[in-house]
């Protein structure tokens, strides 16, 4: 999936998603440096979660503090804090787990 702003025709990055044992994983997520800190990554992540509703597991290596901060903030905003943030000593990764739901269902839940 390419990341960009449709109205401007910009291709600002990409996301690679895989599904294993019924769980989605963000294999790669990249935004070109000149497009970072503009909300494009958040917009793209939300779009990916909407396109692939279900259970998610997003992992980061311990040394990549910017990625940990990015994903924790994005997932917190997307789920309104309804996610698990954990560390696997076996795999030596920090990871977040949550369930994405289609936009129609998210809109109904927000109004209840």
TrEMBL record:
<dbReference type="GO" id="GO:0016746">
    <property type="term" value="F:acyltransferase activity"/>
</dbReference>
<keyword id="KW-0012">Acyltransferase</keyword>
<dbReference type="InterPro" id="IPR016181">
    <property type="entry name" value="Acyl_CoA_acyltransferase"/>
</dbReference>
<keyword id="KW-0808">Transferase</keyword>
<feature type="domain" description="N-acetyltransferase">
    <location>
        <begin position="12"/>
        <end position="71"/>
    </location>
</feature>
<protein>
    <submittedName>
        <fullName>GNAT family N-acetyltransferase</fullName>
        <ecNumber>2.3.1.-</ecNumber>
    </submittedName>
</protein>
<dbReference type="Pfam" id="PF00583">
    <property type="entry name" value="Acetyltransf_1"/>
</dbReference>
<dbReference type="InterPro" id="IPR000182">
    <property type="entry name" value="GNAT_dom"/>
</dbReference>
């Amino acid at each position: 999936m390419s990341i960009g702003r449709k109205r401007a025709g910009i291709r600002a990055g990409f996301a690679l998603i895989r599904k294993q044992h019924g769980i989605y994983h963000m294999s790669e997520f990249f935004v070109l440096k000149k497009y970072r800190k503009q909300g494009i990554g958040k917009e793209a992540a939300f779009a990916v979660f909407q396109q692939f509703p279900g259970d998610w597991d997003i992992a980061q290596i311990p040394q990549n503090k910017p990625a940990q901060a990015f994903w924790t903030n994005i997932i917190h905003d997307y789920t309104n804090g309804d996610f698990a943030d954990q560390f696997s000593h076996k795999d030596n990764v920090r990871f977040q787990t949550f369930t994405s739901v289609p936009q129609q269902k998210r809109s109904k839940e927000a109004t209840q």
